[in-house]
Amino acid sequence: MAERADTHAGADVEDMPELSDGDDDFGDDEAQWQWMEDHDGSPHVTCLFCDRLLNSVLDTLQHCTVEHHINLVDVINKHHVDDYSYIKLINFIRSTKCEPTHLMGLPDGPLPWESDDFLRPVIQDDPLLQTDPEELCGQQGEGLSTCEPSGAESRHAILQRANAAEERARRSEDALARAMEDLHKLKLLAQGLVLNAETRRTANLGSVAELRDDEDEAYFSSYGHYGIHEEMLKDKVRTESYRDFMYSNPEVFRDKVVLDVGCGTGILSMFAAKAGAKKIIAVDQSEIIYQAMDIVRSNQLEDKITFLKGRIEDICLPVEKVDIIISEWMGYFLLFESMLDSVLVARDLYLADGGSVYPDLCNISLAAVGDKQKHQERIAFWDNVYGFNMSCMKKAVVPEAVVEVVNADTLISEPTVIQTIDCNRVCLSELEFASDFCLKITNTGDCTAIVGYFDIFFDKGCCNKVMFSTGPQVTKTHWKQTVFLLEKPLAVQAGEELRGKITVRKNKKDPRSLLVTFDLRDRKLTYSLQ
Ligand code: SAH
């Protein structure tokens, strides 16, 4: 493991040289090792008093004693030669080529090698200079000079190798730290590039129409399962509103060509057929359309209803224009899913002059909520979780809008409409908007959240207008309500007008999800709906 890790670290360092200032000292170390290895065992120490080359420092000292009758250790001891003085002594002997007797007979007092000039080596890489004088004395005292000079030398060499290895390790660590720093910089650079690319790629994604098939696959496959259709069909408020609108306004449908955008199980197409439509074109990209084909056959409506599988944006209709477009495109907080984008594409491509899109009007509304218990459950909960403080989790919890049913008793303001959309007129860019609002507070207390919901109207040219609401005061629907929690509740007084601004925009990275920002008192709060 360690070896692999080392190898890896080494590879990293090697891969990054151009990024680091990189002091290239490794080379010096290598040279030193090479030098030590080359000289291992071959004569390489020059005698202090003649030209003889000897195998080791101790051999040299022994040679000096025998041949030149001077014991260097005696000189060291006599003159209390320390590390520096020892280096000077060696260089003094070599540079002045003094006689051994001269050294032995030196009087007490200033020594002839005291000048710092003698710190400069006379012989490059002189092994005598790399020897510790104290160690030299110790070794001689132990009689190593005569017994095992090469053993002592190898111990010294080991020490040197260890020191050098330590130095190498330190430099490697430094180099690795520099490489890591460079990697970090590269990572930030890469992240920046990717994010910019992402923004560029999605910058003009004002519509889901521009999504690639593979990017939208998950969306359509979620509609492939029967479960979601069962939930929608069982939502009576929703489904009966569509049915009532069509059945109670037969004059709107009689002999008309109808386009059903996103037909699902085909329910709206069948209502239209029963309401008197001449021809219905039912389009859906999801696999559920195959069930719809069976359902329509089972109800003997196949002569009136034609199915086309595909995205409305991509397919080619068998007619040039249609009189009516029906669709159930609404998502949470109305605009989540952005399916209205697709309906607008269909409208602009296929709706005949004087034709109508149904439902035609939609309101988005807000109201203030004062629900301390819910707030406690969702926010204060994190302050003490089994005795642990997890309050940092609030930063993740609060910005996610919650889809849930709000108890009407917890409303503390009148609702206010922040946006009205006319599906026959609205254009794509208007589906992102900012709106000032004013909430008339009805109960004094703490505002713990803002709730959002929508109302739907079948209005244009209808004798019998139909509408339904997804608000908290009426029968709940599968859209429930959308709750924007306030981390810190706002104290409000009955009669007060709580003013703010809401901005609704698509999430650039996923145009099917929404970002909702509230400017409320002096706070700016952004929520995602995904
Ligand atoms: N009309 C049905 C289903 C509504 S759900 C009903 O009222 O019960 C919305 C349907 O629209 C889904 O089945 C989905 O697959 C389909 N849909 C969404 N966007 C579409 C698009 N751009 N092209 C084709 N079908 C789409």
Summarize the structure in short.
The protein is of the alpha+beta class and 530 residues long. It contains 17 helices and 17 strands.
Helix-residue proportion: 25-40%
Q: Which CATH C-level class of the largest domain is it?
A: Mainly Beta
The computed structural class is: alpha+beta
Principal-axes geometry comes out as elongated
Query: Biggest sheet: strands, sense, closure?
Result: 6 strands, antiparallel
CATH topology of the largest domain: Hnrnp arginine n-methyltransferase1
Radius of gyration: 44 Å
If you average the pLDDT, what whole number results? 86
Ligand names: S-adenosyl-L-homocysteine
Count of discrete alpha- or pi-helical segments spanning 4 or more residues: 17
Oligomeric state: single chain
Q: Give a count of the beta strands, DSSP E runs of length 2 or more.
A: 17
Please give a structural write-up.
It is a single chain. With 530 residues, the protein is an alpha+beta fold. Strands 8, 9, 10, 12, 13 and 14 form a 6-stranded antiparallel sheet that branches. The protein has a 5-stranded parallel sheet with strand order 5-4-3-6-7, with helices on both faces. It is elongated. The two termini are 44 Å apart. Bound molecules: S-adenosyl-L-homocysteine (SAH). S-adenosyl-L-homocysteine binds next to α10, α13, β4 and α15.
